[in-house]
Write a structure and sequence with these properties.
two-stranded antiparallel ribbon, 22% strand, binds zinc ion, alpha+beta, 5 helices, homodimer, DNA-binding, 35% helix, Arc Repressor Mutant, subunit A, binds manganese (II) ion
Chain lengths: 136, 136
DNA sequence: TTTCATACTTGTAACGATTACAAAATTGTA
DNA sequence: TACAATTTTGTAATCGTTACAAGTATGAAA
């Protein structure tokens, strides 16, 4: 059981109830939700929650390195709890975003052609195993 | 000198004046412009050009494989003439998007963890050579 | 405990990129 | 030339996101 309150404090973020709930959601579901998905999910137990708070919170988390911000295709920003670099695969049929466990040469914190790399993202697009199987 | 009219026909796209001009722009500048950048640039010589036409044309080009659609960070779709897979680096200071010539193992058209890969994108973010030099 | 400044949350309005849509213009073909 | 099909245009609508101002909670100092 992770103490999200502590985790936030360690990152210099005062742990409000809203912030804890949003971080909890990201950890528990461990998917790649948009701000709106999180908002809709927390609406039930927090009826007064504001969408603005969700947006602000996610942006603040990402800036402090608590979570990762993804911008993969289709003009929707997504967030995830897993901050270790990994490959993303988006299925063009079912729109599910898969984590690919295959390792790769990460250029993060390296210098390439004179440029200093701070982030490294690999995005794949195609048809997932499930959709291929059900196509037959 | 490329015959853009022919090029479009070969891809099954009837070559209207607007389409030829947009393709010409992408080829001549060879950067990673947004639809709006192209629209603004062509406004002078084509005063009646509609922004909708630019959006529609770029989308059609990308679908037919004439150009590539990029969705790298910051929620802005960009397009480019160069359809060969390569790495992109965006500088967080000057916002320029660089092409990285370094080669990499491309997973396009391969199968990974059961998924069929149709597109492969690598996006880097950091501080470019120019901005680092001028920081001193 | 009260006071007060600060930080956080909320709700609404505004924004910006993109898309939908219908009318006007153009095109290719008979 | 006639005409149907396609393309372009301009405007309105949409959607994700952000700005902003007012309300609320928090936590330290008195
Ligand atoms: Mn992931
Ligand atoms: Mn490029
Ligand atoms: Zn799928
Ligand atoms: Zn730069």
């Amino acid at each position: 059981m992770i103490d999200f309150k502590e985790l936030l404090k360690e990152h210099g973020i005062p742990p409000s109830l809203q912030r804890i709930k949003i971080l909890e959601y990201l950890h528990d579901f461990n998917t790649h939700p948009t701000a709106d998905v999180i908002y809709q999910a927390l609406m039930n137990e927090m009826p007064t929650l504001s969408k603005t708070t969700v947006y602000n919170t996610l942006k603040a988390f990402a800036e402090k390195g608590v979570i990762v911000e993804l911008s993969l295709f289709e003009n929707e920003v997504r967030y995830e709890y897993n901050t270790t670099p990994h490959i993303h695969f988006k299925c063009i049929k079912c729109n599910i975003i898969y984590d690919i466990s295959e390792s790769f040469e990460c250029l993060k914190n390296k210098e390439i052609e004179g440029h200093k790399v701070l982030e490294h993202h690999i995005y794949l697009k195609g048809i997932c195993k499930n959709c291929r199987d059900s196509e037959e």
